[in-house]
Give the backbone structure.
Amino acid sequence: MNPDLWLPDSDLDDDHRTFAQRIRAFAADKLAPFARAIDEERTFRREMVADLAAAGILGGPLAAEFGGEGWSPLELAIAHEELGAVCGNARGFCAVQTGLVAQCIARFGDDAQRRRWLPGLIDGSAIGCFALTEPDAGSDVASLGTVAAKQGDGTFRIAGRKWWITNGGIADVMIVFASLDRSLGRKGITAFLVDTDRAGLARSPVPGVDLGHRGSDHAELVFEGFAATADEVLGELGAGFKVAMGGLAAGRLSVAAGAVGLHRAALAAAVEFTTGRQQFGQPLSSFQMVQERLADHLTSLHASRALVHRCARRREAGTETHADVAMAKLQATEAGSRACEDAVMLHGARGYSSAWPVERFWRDIQALRIYEGTSMIQKTILARLVTEG
Ligand SMILES: Cc1cc2nc3c(=O)[nH]c(=O)nc-3n(C[C@H](O)[C@H](O)[C@H](O)COP(=O)(O)OP(=O)(O)OC[C@H]3O[C@@H](n4cnc5c(N)ncnc54)[C@H](O)[C@@H]3O)c2cc1C
């Protein structure tokens, strides 16, 4: 076993290595002891939120003026790899709470909205959700059917249905996307930043048992006569599509980094297991077919991380293109999924049990291929850029 081969440390300068080790130590201390239990028990662990806040992680990427640590995009990627390697539920929570909600408020909100919500989202006293997906509008965001009808007094009445909303059942605050005029397509969409403690909102868990991320809350939200004021518009009227796409494009980097973390954890587990287990009188890792898989997943891990860090560095330099994050997410989630699948296979029957972590890694990474733009949607983005410029 040579963890130096799959950890990022030797590619990082001293400051970034120290940063990675800080988040790794937090994850080992505060997340690892619960990662399996919350998955098996399907419970959202509220203490996890307090721990993430106390460690500065919830505010991490937010600027110091908002109470955050001002992480660079590369620090964000490093942090989400470390969190993802240990607990997909914690990483997914941060991606929504901080990446989609707090960062959208910081970027698109006015001073009053930032003052009201950012402190609570950073100290963990408020939980946020990002309510975009609907039963009939997933990848095709512009077709969403939730409507916001403007009233004579300037307020809005929101009606419609959202689902698969992470934190939706427990959120104190949400960004909800609704159309003022469906005939305008994406130009009709407006983002509203509202608290959840008001009439006209019914929340329930999504139907069925989730494949992965079982320690997370995924809800269906039904709005009927839900009132919002003009002050609760996030950004501008009719500019909600920009808010949604801005949040998702930013968030894709952390999803890609989380996939690198899962890939790394699956590879580490596969190496540990195959070097320890003997069949036919020799370690599994001495068989060439096993070695081939370990070698392939080590190589693709580094390819994924290189694309993720490249995207982060270009974001930092202001030279990022739409292709950068699409390539990073596509590569990291697809290669990570293959690594997790092989880790299950290489564990034999043990890989099929929650007593070993690899089946959870495989279940969790499937969602990373789906949310914040499926792999196919990343390919359509890339194909359009390649063919149309
Ligand atoms: C664990 C989890 C958490 C989530 N959290 C949130 C959240 O917090 N907030 C939120 O708003 N949503 C959330 N989602 C929803 C997620 O964003 C959507 O599931 C995703 O955007 C895909 O939409 P869909 O499920 O409707 O699939 P569809 O859009 O119906 O796609 C179904 C299939 O068709 C393919 N497809 C669609 N269009 C094309 C095309 N043009 N070309 C080729 N293939 C295509 C897709 O790739 C996919 O394979 C979450 C989902 C999961 C699984």
